[in-house]
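Researcher: Batch entry, complex prediction.
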Amino acid sequence: MSAITTPLPESPVAWKLPYRGKVGMACLIFAESAIFTIFVVAYLYYVGKSLSGPAPREVLETPIFYTICLLSSSLTIHFAGKLLERGRRNAFLLSWLLTIALGALFLYGTGQEWHRLIYEHGLTISTNLFGTTYYSLVGLHAFHVTAGLIMLSVVLSFGLAGRVGPEHSARVNVLSLYWHFVDAVWVIVFTVVYVLGR
Amino acid sequence: MSSDAIAIQTTEATAQPWVQTLHEWVTTVDHKRLGILYILYALFFLVVGGIEATVIRIQLMRPRNDFVSPEVFNRMFTMHGTTMIFFVAMPVLFGFGNYLVPLMIGARDMAFPRLNAFSFWLTAFGGFLLYFSFIGGNGLYGAGNAPDVGWWAYAPLASRAFSPGHSSDYWTIALLASGFGSIGTAINIIATIISMRCPGMKLSRMPLLAWLNLVMSGMVLLAITPLSAAQLMLLVDRYLGGHFFDTQAGGSATLWMHFFWIFGHPEVYVLIIPCFAFASEIIPVFSRKPIFGYPVMVGATVCIAFVSMSVWAHHMFTIGMSSYANSFFTITTMAVGVPTGIKIFNWLGTMWGGKIQFKTPMLFCIGFLFQFLIAGLTGIMLASSPFDWQLSGSYFVVAHFHYVIVGGILFALFGAFYYWHPKITGRMLNEGLGKLHFWLFLIGFHLTFDLMHIPGLLGMPRRIYTYEPGRGWDTLNFLVSIGAFVQAIAILVFVVNLVVSYFKGAKAGNDPWDAWTLEWSISSPPPVYNFASIPTVASRRPLWDLKHPEDPDSRYE
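Model: Structure tokens for the complex:
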């Protein structure tokens, strides 16, 4: 028998399916959301259950500035994608670089906060339940920011080498989907840790 | 003809040096080869896990037996459970999914071939890491060996104080690695089904196997991830001095239970849904009728996926939840029985009035139907919380879930082996040996797991190392162990059949079962490129349309 070519009255016109990269990233985001949900549930479950200090109310300061940095990086990456679609490579690279800078600034903010908590307040991951849940949840998010920054930097280095053009915009958009997710998670983490948790 | 060209290719392939063949297999990104790797890997661990089960059964054969030490016994049941779920059931089902989904939807390969290879090797690495614990588990403390904390590793048993050394860490990291592998494969299967279907293959025309793998993969994304998160927390506790599950510092042992079972119960459905998929492909072909109630089958599966996400705490009735929680989880657990019942009726409806051919795949599927029904019924019994208070942690529970996993999952899986083996290897499995395998396994299975319910009802707790004579358990346990040996012999027959048929089996041809899905339209084994030209389909049974141009299905859709 030969390979099948089923007799068909008319071939289906415009057989178009969703882009696999987008579907794959959506699935990854779905799975990651479940991981974050478990960490958020653990955080909320243990709020106020530490047997010893320091408590969140005493030591946490709301990182408004760094939050604005991270959230605005969602805008810059969105514009970067649009600019690439229109073929404006230099503007794309600039906007992309700005995204990386804002993300790195956010990471610096997290690092600074951890440094302050560890050296001024003596709060480590093993101090009490608050420390355990706080460093795990914020650390998990920071890990995702770091992973995102590495991927963004790879695209940047290709871009600087002149290898990123409008034909890659579908792939670049998949990456920016991930970056939007990292930002959205921060909104949840921020609400849980700095608003509800205190 | 394309099949002639392929025959020439395979003779060339056997002529090359074995190092090159090995290199090709290790570096492959082809979904068919990865599928075969998954299946072979799972078969290897099936034998390993089976040996562990045999050790357990020899130890429990007589009262006050001392075939192994208590410590070894604990390792055996921990490793048996972990191996069978994570390194047999998951990989073998992913293997079949990998192999069949692209062929059935008319695709060249999976959506992300390299991610596919990465996922397989992560899973493989996890399995070998788990077994490396027999050598490396002693750790700096010189304590421990293989993991011995049970397959659910309840806190605080898995904490540093009660599980020194590295045995529990091997367990954690092995499961974490294989969990990431599972997530990768699930993403791949979903993206393949959503984005790679051949022209005309609308969602409503997909074979049920593809549909059910889609649902299963969605569940993997939601169910495996809580386990990964909980494993990360356990690692924080064990290595960084965290307090997630440390009751001395205000942590909660119950939280671990919740996280584990949020994974653990949907996992049962992750494993059984692909088996539903096998039954949904095999039963119609051997009844010579299209599947009865296709849309209802899809709906029921999606329904099971949703409801099964909210039943986990029926594993925890005895920890003292509120009566509201107990009622909620009793009701949801019983509710899962409804869509599952619908599916059973649909399979019966498919067989009803059909010209049933009792070939080996069909025999296994009928065994699956019958046994899965009984497993579901004891499940309904255990769903009732007062009944569960009495029997939780007894051999009744062990008998119940082995009825699901062996009587349901493994039977359907053997059916799938006999059905798709001709496609994968190009040769039929021997029918006589197959029937012998079926009947031996059926007898052994019922001897073991029917009788195992009774010592449970009489009060025999699970996981005990040994028991006193004269409690009315002795004869039953002896017979249960005899049944286990019969099953082991049946598996041996299966392995012999695999080996003999691989070399001496009758040539299968493209379509030995006169089936209707796309994988039977190409040669056996399929060429590397799957389809010489991507097919176009117009109905749920494209091969029926091809064979019966005078009365195609597409006319009625």
